[in-house]
Amino acid sequence: MTINDEILALANQLANNGKKPTVALIKGKLTKTVPLPTIISTLKTWQHDPSFVAQPQKNEQMNIEASCNSSETDPLRQILNEELAQMRHDIVELKLLIQQLLAQQK
To answer: Where in the sequence is the domain holding 100, given as residue range(s)?
Structure first.
């Protein structure tokens, strides 16, 4: 079961219990940390399906985690690390710019 499937299943469970699925409720029930934009975009496309409420099986989760640790994700991991490094660099530059602007105002 993908993370989107898990989000949809949780949304259906909440709806079946008479609750409106919200980002906060979904985030609190997920089995792993998921970025908010993923939850939001999945909920935007969600349509209530009362029968789709299955939770991921432990074996399936272990298979997913094992595949995430495989060498197939190394290029993806490298790209993400490079993008993260660039974002950190940009943040440092922005902080310096803010400090300069604040100093000019004084």
So the answer is: 74-106
